[in-house]
Write a structure and sequence with these properties.
Distance between the termini: 78 Å
Largest sheet: none
Low-confidence stretches: none
GO biological process, one term: response to toxic substance
Strand content: under 5%
Pfam families: Entericidin
Order of helices and strands: H
Number of helices: 1
Mean pLDDT: 84
Keywords: Cell membrane, Lipoprotein, Membrane, Palmitate, Signal
Number of domains: 1
Protein name: Entericidin
Family: Belongs to the EcnA/EcnB lipoprotein family.
């Protein structure tokens, strides 16, 4: 096996490994984004529920 063949194989393996890592990172970032979005929605719902409860208990009208 020549040095060029070994270098070509090594380069191919490096590119394939890099592609695999990049694709798995995209899935991880996407999942993290979905988790953060879910938390944001829950916080927003909680804030709206709290505001509604305060308005009901104080007979205040919303701004």
């Amino acid at each position: 096996m020549s040095t060029k063949s070994i270098a070509r194989i090594a380069l191919s393996l490096a590119l394939l490994s890099g592609s695999a890592v990049t694709l798995s990172a995209c899935n991880t970032v996407r999942g993290a984004g979905q988790d953060v979005s879910s938390v944001g929605h829950n916080v927003s719902r909680g804030a709206n529920a709290t505001q509604g409860a305060i308005e009901r208990h104080t007979n205040a009208s919303p701004n």
